[in-house]
Specification:
With 254 residues, the protein is α/β, with parallel strands linked by helices. The chain has a single domain, classed as TIM Barrel (Alpha-Beta Barrel). Strands 1-2-3-4-5-6-7-8 form an eight-stranded parallel beta sheet. α4 links the parallel β3 and β4. α4 crosses α5 and α9 crosses α10. The radius of gyration is 17 Å and the shape is globular.
């Protein structure tokens, strides 16, 4: 069995064809998926998906790029996470891609709020980092994130960043990006991540892997990510499925 450790089934591209996506998952041996929240306003919709199907679970958090949304506080995140269907805090982190770092104190403070909430409720973090790897790792360490661990989702950074995150107890999750022709450097990193720190995801509806690149992504396509990792590492698809499922269950529960 494979598990998609990060998807957005509540987004319009997938919500309108949810039943089809779930059928496709089953056909491709994808037994479970984690539906990740990106703001508090839409969290009830994400939680509702997890309540509808036993194969789905939810997270709660506010994406670092979202500005015109309700700002989270520790108490709110902990209260919403006090639900067996909610298995993680996030999507949180830092994203400096579109803004100068010196204008993003609000992002860094929001990130710290999520880490503090995760520690308080003892649930793992789902971390987004883009053009901000050094600050992401630094803040994780400063806030004691190793107490809960989590996942560096849709990983695109270098091996030094991966190693630092692994040392803090985080898994490294690869998306369809690892299958792209121009992702040779990322594939070199993927080949080095130890089995016990490896996860796979789609980040659907975005980043569809080869051979579906350019189309709407969905959890069933995580099989292509896993096959790419198997080929890179010289192991079977079944081995990748086994280790990534074990890692997911260790982090997020069965």
């Amino acid at each position: 069995m494979l598990i998609d450790s990060h998807c957005h089934l509540d987004f319009p591209e997938l919500a309108a064809r949810l039943d089809e996506c779930l059928v496709n998952m089953a056909e491709q041996g994808v037994g479970r998926a984690l539906c990740v929240a990106v703001n508090l306003e839409d969290f009830p919709r994400v939680r509702s998906l997890a309540a509808q199907d036993a194969r789905l679970r939810a997270s709660v958090g506010v994406h670092p790029e979202y500005q015109e949304v309700r700002e989270p506080d520790v108490e709110t995140l902990v209260t919403l996470a006090d639900d067996p269907l909610v298995v993680a805090i996030g999507e949180t982190g830092l994203d400096y891609y579109r803004h100068p770092a010196d204008s993003l104190d609000w992002q860094r403070e929001r990130f710290r709020v999520h880490i503090r909430a995760a520690r308080q409720c003892a649930k793992p973090l789902i971390v987004h980092t883009r053009s901000s790897a050094a600050d992401t790792v630094r803040i994780l360490a400063e806030e004691g994130a190793e107490a809960v661990g989590g996942v560096m989702h849709c990983f695109t950074e270098d091996w030094a960043t991966a190693r630092a995150a692994i040392d803090l107890g985080f898994c490294i999750s690869f998306s369809g990006i690892v299958t792209f022709r121009n992702a040779a450097a990322l594939r070199e990193v993927a080949a080095q991540v130890p089995d016990e720190a490896l996860l796979v995801e789609t980040d659907s509806p975005y980043l569809a892997p080869v051979p579906h690149r350019g189309r709407t992504n969905e959890p069933a396509y995580v099989r292509h990510v896993a096959q790419c990792l198997a080929d890179l590492r010289g192991v079977s698809l079944e081995h990748i499925a086994q280790v990534t499922t074990a890692n997911f269950e260790r982090l997020f529960g069965r």
